[in-house]
């Protein structure tokens, strides 16, 4: 993943947000944030959220993520994001880039190293499809 993304400057990294129920998210200091960083994402919550924390809708709107990831165990969160009018102003929603993560690609609970690695690759493909077009 890092080899394919080395030409992407830091200021052009895709802004991403990890959505959870009740506007909770992961910032820095958690496996999920590390997985996002390794996938080439700029985690919009990393600078202001340490660990796992609830944020406001106003903050998410201000961050305006280009991609939203949702853990596989929260399909209702995807539905909420796609159908709640408040979310419709966000770039990721406008461009249909809200993704429910697959069950095997996760960094929560007690993650297995291979799940984190697969998750990073899966995320990278969603973030930069043109750089991972040959990966299925």
Explain the overall architecture.
This protein is 35% helix and 16% strand. The protein has 6 helices and 6 strands; from the N terminus they run H-E-E-H-E-E-H-E-H-H-E-H. The chain has helices at 2-5, 31-38, 57-63, 75-83, 91-94, 113-127; strands at residues 14-19, 24-26, 41-43, 52-54, 67-70, 98-100. The strands form 2 sheets. It has a 4-stranded parallel beta sheet with strand order 3-1-5-6, with helices on both faces. Strands 2-4 form a two-stranded antiparallel ribbon. It is globular and about 35 Å long. The two termini are 14 Å apart.
Secondary-structure blueprint:
Elements: H1 2-5, E1 14-19, E2 24-26, H2 31-38, E3 41-43, E4 52-54, H3 57-63, E5 67-70, H4 75-83, H5 91-94, E6 98-100, H6 113-127
Parallel strand pairs: 1-3, 1-5, 5-6
Antiparallel strand pairs: 2-4
């Amino acid at each position: 993943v890092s080899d394919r993304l080395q030409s992407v400057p830091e200021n052009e990294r895709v802004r991403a947000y990890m959505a959870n129920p009740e506007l909770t998210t992961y910032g820095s200091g958690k496996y999920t944030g590390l997985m996002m960083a390794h996938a080439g994402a700029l985690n919009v919550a990393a600078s202001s959220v340490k660990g796992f924390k609830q944020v406001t809708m106003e903050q998410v709107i201000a961050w305006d993520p280009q991609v939203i990831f949702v853990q596989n165990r929260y399909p209702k969160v995807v539905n909420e994001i796609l159908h709640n009018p408040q979310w419709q102003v966000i770039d990721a929603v406008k461009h249909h880039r809200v993704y429910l993560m697959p069950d095997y690609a996760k960094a929560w609970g007690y993650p297995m190293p291979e799940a984190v690695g697969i998750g990073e690759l899966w995320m990278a493909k969603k973030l930069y499809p043109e750089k991972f077009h040959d990966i299925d």
